[in-house]
Amino acid sequence: MTPADETVLAGHLQELRRGTVVVAALASLRTPGYGYALLESLGRAGFEVDANTLYPLLRRLEKQGLLTAEWNTDESRPRKFYRTSTAGEDVLAALRTDWRSLDAAITDLA
To answer: What kind of fold does domain 32-109 have according to CATH?
Structure first.
């Protein structure tokens, strides 16, 4: 693969992952977690997300009512913990259903 081909592929992979980070965040935050821990767990799962992508996404999902958030000030460093809301669970289920349909359609094309 030429460097130009690698650049094109990298752009397409970035675009594909950008759409899936919402699904990954909603699924992962069924158990409360804070941003940095979410970055680490997604990375361990092979889903690399940049902090500059994740933190604005978390704020947007909270604003949309798909995540709930609360500050934990019990530790020396306050952390904002996020959790998937009921509305977030509904959106996650719909996104997963659509994901499966798209995957089946792409598989049928092959």
So the answer is: Arc Repressor Mutant, subunit A (1.10.10)
